[in-house]
What does this fold into?
Amino acid sequence: MARVDVVMPQMGESIAEGTLSKWLKKVGDTVKRDEPIFEISTDKVDAEIPAPASGTLAEIIVTEGQTVPVSTVVARLETEAGAAVSAPEKAPEAGAPATPAAPAAPSAPPKTAASGPASPAPSAAPRVATGNGGSLEERLRTRSSPLVRKIAAEHGIEIAALQGSGLAGRVTKRDIMQFLESGEPVQGARPSMLAPAGTERHGPPVEPWAGDVVEPMSKIRQLTSDHMVMARRHAAHVTSFFEVDLTRVARIRQKMRGAFERETGQKLTFLPFVIRVVVDALKQHAVLNAAHDGARIIYRKQYNVGIAVALDWGLIVPVIRRAEDLSLSGLTRSLNDLAERARSKRLKPEEVQGATFTITNPGVFGSLMGTPIIPAGTSAILGLGAIEKRPKVMTGPDGEDVIAVRTCAYFSLSFDHRIVDGADADRFLATIKKGLENYAEPSV
It folds into this structure.
């Protein structure tokens, strides 16, 4: 009789902990090796985790909703079929992490997700004196993600003075954004100033009424909330709108879709055409593929296009890397593959990182236009409205005005006005408009 530990995996180098969001098996169930056994949420991606061996799920240690460090044992498998299984035990609190290596400023500090109730209380972390000054508890708390440290530096916040909700009291994005929204003075911050994670610090309290249904936010919804608030506060948002005539693209698509789908096995949509034109426009307008960093502008030389994918349980933005190197069929394959794996929770953490520009397509739901929020670390996001036929005034062959039916859509560009001027944004949109309205029929 042998037992196999099932551990919380490390979904990327910067991931320090994960939330066990759902068990797909229960105690006593037979599982096969590599069969999904539970789902996790991190600050990068949701994923299904396969069983490390075949056998019977003998014990569940970490329950749904708990956030624990990577390598924590979350369950145990009995590897002999028919062996007795133990009754589920009450999940213990996650223990404090092992003492980290000695350097005071680690080169790759872990990013942490907003922790759930199972995160150990800061007081549980041993106050061990260290050679670099300060206790282990203090060092763990200040090892926040680079983004948290950047926000703290910009607002003059002393991270060590804040009481975080992450692992061992680590300050998370949620913590620092709630502190900023509280309106408290940022200099000389005290631990008591920071509210627990999930506590609103502005506006009147909201209480449920009789008959209301109250449910906790899912992990992906919490992370989306944190990211949207942070991104909105961090950039100077402005949005421009252009109407684009897609009649030519529609005709090219209709002409080539039969052969394209037979040869590639992929459904041809408007989006790959848009991505190709967008990448060409980014090459001509470099500031739209840039990032703001204090007093610096970082002009990216890779064209990694994030594509927002709406899921039943939230929103995720997988990234097409090196989009400039892909043909129309290559873009279509990448789009379909990333979208399918996003819906089945099989994306890797690195596949939702590193976007230099983002496209969101609310038009598939009928939206005419919108003002999307710019993802942190980029300077712009393009929103595609519904593609529909409209009457348009055109110039006829003899120079007279005629009314024609055209296939059109509104494109919106939200841009960071700290580094992108309105003229830059409008020239970029004009380049996209021209590229789509004069699209050259491509080879597959």
User: Anything to note?
Assistant: The chain has three domains: 3-78, 114-201+218-234, 238-437. The longest strand covers residues 401-416.
